[in-house]
Amino acid sequence: MTKDPRHARGEYLKRHTEALIKDIGYAKACEVSGKSKATLGRYASLMDENSDRFIPVNVLVELETEASVPFVTKALAELQQLKLEYDTDRDERRGGLNSDVILLSQRFANLMAEYNHSIADGVISMNETRRLLDETNSLQHVLMDMKLNLQDQNS
User: Which string of DSSP letters, residue by residue, matches the chain?
Assistant: First the structure.
């Protein structure tokens, strides 16, 4: 059974919306966006009754400003086969080991979510491979920053 391409694109955007919200946390997302947890949940929900609800662009901009990666913007670019370049040092506001561990956990969760989504149909497409590689590189970046922060604290 094949999915309607429009439905598949919508699901793809909703999964990235969910990753965006989880990246910054629901509490912070509510604070930044002025939206309730329920409203943000509907933007990311794959349920049929929410299939036509997508995150407004103005809310997206506010959330992606706080996020470690512009998840939805990146997904939009991928859907249009565009290459998106952005400043990779977006997470300079972090501080301390606890922040590093939290960011590491979030990146690993994003990698596992991408992997689960990618293998759901038994085949990993080129787009899915690219996303997995991006998540792996992000995880590696966090680990390197964590190592450098620990070395700085030790010296």
Answer: -PPPHHHHHHHHHHHHHHHHHHHH-HHHHHHHH---HHHHHHHH--SGGGTT----HHHHHHHHHHSSS-HHHHHHHHHTT------S-TTTT--HHHHHHHHHHHHHHHHHHHHHHHHTTS---HHHHHHHHHHHHHHHHHHHHHHHHHHHHH-
Spatial distance between the Cα atoms of 114 and 128, rounded to a whole number of angstroms? 8
Per-10-residue mean pLDDT of the chain, 155 residues long, equals 76 91 92 95 93 94 89 87 64 64 85 86 86 86 83 79
Q: Is 24 left (phi over 0), alpha (psi -120 to 50) or beta?
A: alpha
| Residue 64 structure tokens | 């992606």
Q: Where are the domains of the chain?
A: 1-68, 87-155
